[in-house]
Design brief:
By secondary structure, the protein is an alpha+beta fold. The chain is 37% helix and 13% strand. Residues 1-5, 10-19 and 225-236 have low confidence and may be disordered.
Length: 236
């Protein structure tokens, strides 16, 4: 057990007898712990730094908390570059009975979300080309409502279609530090999500959710609230 952890668990320890550095570390540890516990959203290193005394080693305190909570029922985790408390993965099954049944996404929505995650930035027409069927505007609307995807910009092609990408909320919901943590080809096969007999030429793209627009994207105009692509076909 580390010195920080021992001091933290004892609570009533004689801080006056402890080294000054240990006392300061314990104080900072308690402040970081309190901020993470009270926040309804994950907090970034910058947000925590602004709320703590100047000169505090915030990253060091976060790592110490992460180590302390590792064997417990809740863990300190880093998601999408931010820090928060989360139920330990091996205990997540205990929460199911207390969670309200959420509306399930349709297969079309799940396929569309997967395509956006792996192929972003991607347009509706490109999604349809990959899926092999038309994609309803309503399917994209549902995904936009979840806040897991966003409209990034407009492709520099005729019609200037909207491009889509994933959001920070997508990473947080699915427990990812960044989009590159999505499973690759072998992992998908191992999970039974891909046919083991798929062609040898089949590739799973390396995803990227870089917020910067690509060379073939223009910024969205102010006030853009919808995709102006044709919506005549019914989705599947």
């Amino acid at each position: 057990m580390s010195e920080l952890e021992q001091l933290h668990l004892e609570g009533g320890a004689d801080l006056g007898a402890a080294p000054q550095k240990a006392s300061e570390d314990l104080s900072g540890l308690r402040m970081v712990e309190a901020l993470l516990f009270a926040s309804s959203e994950p907090l970034s290193l910058e947000e925590l730094t602004l709320r703590l005394p100047e000169g505090t080693d915030v990253l060091g305190l976060l790592e110490a908390l992460q180590e302390m909570y590792a064997p417990r029922g809740v863990n300190v985790v880093q998601l999408a570059g931010k820090w928060c408390f989360r139920t330990a993965e091996d205990l997540s099954y205990l929460m199911y009975r207390n969670v309200e049944e959420q509306r399930k996404l349709s297969r079309a929505a799940l396929e569309t979300l997967a395509i956006i995650a792996y192929h972003q930035p991607v347009t509706r027409a490109e999604i349809e080309e990959i899926r092999g069927v038309s994609t309803s505007k309503g399917t994209l609307d549902v995904l936009l409502e979840t806040t897991w995807i966003r409209m990034r910009g407009r492709r520099r092609t005729p019609g200037r279609p909207v491009t889509y990408g994933t959001t920070e909320q997508f990473l947080i919901h699915f427990g990812l530090e960044n989009v590159k943590d999505l499973p690759g080809l072998e992992e998908l096969k191992g999970a039974g999500l891909l046919d083991s007999a798929i062609p040898a030429s089949f590739l799973v793209p390396t995803p990227s959710d870089d917020a910067a627009l690509t060379e073939d994207e223009d910024p969205l105009e102010d006030g853009t609230l919808f995709d102006e692509e044709t919506d005549e076909t019914a989705g599947s």
